[in-house]
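tokens incoming
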């Protein structure tokens, strides 16, 4: 078990030609220092798992060394997006729409994950990374066949922040293109061409130049050889950044039966402790059951008395009078200039076309969640809501099409008061 933050990390990359590279870093007061490095060539991609094991054996693992592995070829794409802050289960549903905007692949052929790399003003900066399912499964198969487990499987370009947050990073395998850090109000990195590689991590003339990074013996290697270790260095730095536990829950889906093999002993101990605690809780609840049962009987008696009173009151209520009172209140609220539930309902009624209807409406803290349904798979209403100027932070949370081809889309958004709207 790891009781203290790890001080060492190993980053490992491999390429389609069977070549592998690994770097071992140690955390220092000023940054990182290269302890050792290794490279080898399998000659055949099928030999990669065994070769990766050889590399890890050569660098050494004392049981408290983080191991991060990833492919070094440009077979995984990425995009940085900005979305409203929300719960993790809602976030993944919302990001599914963002992936669809960027990935030129069918959803069934797409493996994707994300990392939260920043946040400000109730919004999150999220890095999406995605590839073909076949490519991601090839990565997972290579790692699963290794003689020892690892801590994380992730491509270097998805891991370059925050460790290289202010530095441009060359895209491996695509010389002359680099992921430039955001400028001004930009959401995140953007892939741009460059002419001069000075100051670009992974590019000549100084491919491993980064603040706080001491190269050790790797500094004596030719610049061309150093360039091949850029991805491994990024993964090793990422291994010491402290975000692996969170990112492991948002990485692309791994094949059935596959699990990262690290710390299985820790998980077994955690399982035993959980069973022990559950036993103690069960015994405690058993002791309290008898007292709770008596209290429940009292509650049931009180509930029966309240039900009798409610039945008597219902006999005196005139439905037509209640309806007229509610209608008057609705009209008063709708006439106001601010945001209100009646005005929001009226706005939605006017904006949705004939083919759409609302099956669920939830108003909470000035935000609205609705289920919009349609007899056909059509999300044009989202564009209508955006262009109306009456709603902001429109986020599609979930989309379901049933066996009758009836579409249901859950949408979260925030109504905008009339005096706050900007005329386009």
């Amino acid at each position: 078990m790891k009781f203290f933050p790890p001080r060492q990390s190993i980053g490992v990359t491999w390429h389609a030609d069977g070549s592998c590279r690994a770097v071992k870093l140690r955390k220092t007061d000023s940054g990182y220092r290269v302890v050792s490095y290794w490279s080898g060539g399998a000659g055949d991609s099928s030999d990669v798992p065994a070769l990766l094991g050889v590399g890890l054996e050569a660098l050494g693992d004392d049981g408290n060394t983080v191991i991060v592995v990833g492919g070094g070829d440009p077979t995984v794409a990425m995009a940085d997006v900005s979305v409203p802050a929300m719960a993790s289960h809602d976030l993944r549903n919302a990001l599914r729409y963002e992936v669809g905007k960027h990935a030129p692949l069918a959803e069934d052929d797409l493996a994707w994950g994300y990392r939260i790399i920043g946040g400000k003003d109730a919004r999150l900066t999220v890095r999406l990374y995605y590839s073909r399912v076949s490519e991601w499964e090839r990565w997972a198969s290579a790692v699963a066949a290794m003689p020892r487990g690892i801590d994380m499987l992730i491509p270097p370009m998805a891991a370059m922040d925050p460790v290289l947050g202010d530095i441009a990073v060359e895209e491996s395998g695509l010389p002359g293109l680099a992921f430039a850090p955001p400028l001004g109000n930009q959401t995140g990195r953007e892939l741009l061409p460059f002419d001069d590689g000075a100051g670009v991590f992974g590019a000549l003339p100084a491919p491993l130049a980064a603040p706080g990074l001491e190269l050790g013996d790797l500094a004596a290697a030719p610049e061309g050889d150093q360039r091949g270790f850029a991805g491994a260095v990024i993964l090793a730095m990422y291994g010491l950044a402290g975000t692996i536990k969170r990112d492991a829950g948002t990485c692309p889906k791994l094949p059935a039966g596959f699990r990262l093999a690290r710390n299985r002993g820790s998980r077994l101990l955690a399982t035993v402790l959980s069973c022990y605690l559950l036993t103690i809780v069960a015994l405690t609840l058993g002791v309290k059951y008898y007292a709770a049962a008596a209290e429940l009987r009292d509650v049931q008696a009180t509930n029966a008395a309240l039900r009798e009173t409610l039945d008597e009151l219902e006999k005196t209520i005139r439905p037509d009078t209640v309806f007229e009172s509610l209608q008057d209140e609705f009209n008063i609220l709708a006439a106001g200039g601010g945001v209100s539930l009646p005005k929001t309902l009226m706005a939605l009624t006017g904006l949705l076309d004939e083919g759409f209807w609302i099956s669920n409406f939830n108003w909470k803290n000035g935000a609205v969640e609705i289920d919009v349904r349609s007899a056909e798979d059509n999300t044009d209403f989202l564009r209508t809501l955006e262009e109306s100027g009456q709603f902001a932070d429109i986020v599609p949370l979930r989309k379901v099409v049933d066996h009758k081809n009836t579409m249901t889309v859950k949408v979260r958004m925030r109504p905008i008061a009339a005096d706050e709207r900007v005329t386009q």
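note: The chain has a mean pLDDT of 84.
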